[in-house]
Design brief:
It comes from Paenibacillus antri. This is DNA-binding anti-repressor SinI. It holds the Pfam family SinI. GO terms for molecular function: DNA binding; protein dimerization activity. The protein is mostly helical and about 40 residues long. It has one domain. Helix content is about 75%, strand content about 0%. The longest helix has 17 residues.
Length: about 40
């Protein structure tokens, strides 16, 4: 089992509490990754 980063876990849990779905979180992260690679 991989060890989870506490800050990363808190970020995901906060997004879930805000009502975001896992798919919405995934889409946001993919978009951010693509944008950063383009810079």
């Amino acid at each position: 089992m991989k060890r989870l980063d506490a800050e990363w876990l808190e970020l995901i849990l906060t997004a879930k509490r805000m009502g975001l779905t896992i798919e919405e979180i995934r889409e946001f992260l993919m978009k951010e990754t693509v944008q950063r690679k383009a810079q």
